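look at this:
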Amino acid sequence: MNYSIVGSGNVGTALARQFVRSNVDVAIANSRGASSLAPLVAELKGKIRAVNLSEALEADMVILSVPFPAFPNVARTKTNWGGQIIIDTMNRPEKVSGPMSTEVVAGEFPGAKVVKAFNQLPAALLAIDPSQAGGRRVMFVSSNAADASATVAKLARQLGFAPIELGRLDEGGRLLDFHRPLVLHNLIEHKFEG
């Protein structure tokens, strides 16, 4: 499986740091082009490479970390996403009624398996080692595609998090929409023996 991060703002950069820390290959792209990412790639000195947006969008798993209003521009670059996994890390800042933000995102990526993850922590916490106080930082995962949810949970575990799958977007996934109970919580999973 290959991975790309689309967006080099706070969340995209935080996730890039986790990939490098975990020694997992990842591509990163933004709307300004690969050359604009040279300083970040040089700083991280790991298994990260800057690519153009079109190349990043061909990855098996695309981590979407752009400002919420910009995601339709990314979605329109392809007419069919052919089963690719799109991880929605975005939070819609305003509180609105109607469909959840990830349902809106899923509607714009025909053929994709959209998963909500990596959105509940502030970027500063997302960027640091998930090991904390003898446990691992919890990362919630939700999708209408159970296989995609399991794949993203496996990635979260590989990056050092303790993933918890919440089920479908219209069920447990509602807890991950911005202004909901699980967003902005730094929860730590501890394993107890006995």
About this structure: Helices lie at 10-21, 38-44, 53-56, 71-75, 101-108, 123-126, 146-158.
